[in-house]
Specification:
5 helices, six-stranded mixed β-sheet, Deoxyribonuclease I, Chain A, seven-stranded mixed β-sheet, alpha+beta, 17 strands, 263 residues, single chain
Length: 263
């Protein structure tokens, strides 16, 4: 099974359509089973076309590019968590080519006010993969030292929604550097999750953010904040960073993470 997670920084990128096409071409070539996306936005004023999704929804635009490449077997689950930059509904998505058994979205933030940019939601899908159910979560969490929306509380809320009896993967932007001890990453590990990067038989250096980006305005370090975690020990054949300028072109202010699993 092949997974990809990416904070796509949608509609904030120069040459956005060109970058979406590069992502679509990569999905075609790499043949991912599941893709988790964060910061998946659409214009508030755009026309509704499918449920709560609007015409310029980044995920729908991506699916349209995939269809142009002949891939019509991917489906999307999307929901929005808050208003961004006053003009967007910013959310999360999961795209998969496997049958969707169930889907869900839920707040993990104290605030449920969509006008507040720190409101956080999770989108999840349970897929049928080779006869067994696997649940995947697209996650975009807050910061460790945020007094208004503590990271610990968001993780605790997230865990309550994870079925411990079912193989599950938490994929996304956790906004906590895995290289920093005693903070958010360690808190996640103490809750019994397994980092696919650490389990991987083959892996690279792991950096997913370099320097200053939105939410990390003072950062001068190489960070590993985009993660794929499992609730059970899993055979991870490889973990590699993608869209970093070395392994494919940069398409966001975050790099993506791709893992290959033996399930």
């Amino acid at each position: 099974m092949k997974l990809l997670t990416l904070n796509c920084h949608s509609w904030q990128e120069e040459n956005q359509i060109e970058k979406i096409r590069h992502l679509a071409k990569t999905i075609q070539e790499e043949d991912y089973d599941v893709i988790a996306l964060q910061e998946v936005s659409q214009s508030i004023k755009a026309q509704n076309v499918c449920g709560n999704k609007k015409k310029d929804n980044y995920g729908l635009v991506l699916l349209a590019e995939l269809e142009k490449l002949g891939l019509r077997n991917y489906n999307i689950v999307w929901d929005f968590s808050h208003i961004g930059y006053d003009i967007y509904e910013e959310g999360l998505a999961i795209i998969t080519k496997h049958p969707i058994v169930k889907q869900n979205s839920f707040f993990i933030s104290e605030s449920k006010d969509i006008s507040y940019w720190k409101a956080r939601k999770i989108v999840s899908v349970t897929i049928s993969y080779k006869g067994k159910n696997i649940t995947l979560y697209s996650c975009h969490l807050g910061w460790w030292n945020d007094e208004e929306e503590p990271f610990q509380d968001q993780v605790d809320c997230l865990i309550k929604n994870v079925n411990r009896n079912e193989l599950s993967f938490l994929m996304g932007d956790f906004n906590n550097n895995a290289r920093l001890q005693g903070e958010g990453y360690d808190y996640l590990m103490q809750k019994g999750f397994y980092d696919t990067y650490e389990l991987a038989l083959k892996k690279d250096e792991g950096t997913t953010v370099q320097g200053k980006i939105a939410g990390w305005d003072e950062n001068k370090q190489n960070l590993r904040i985009d993660l794929i975690l499992s609730n059970k020990p899993t055979t991870v054949l490889s973990s590699k960073v993608i869209f970093n300028g070395v392994n494919r072109n940069v398409i966001s202010d975050h790099f993506g993470v791709e893992v290959q699993l033996d399930i």
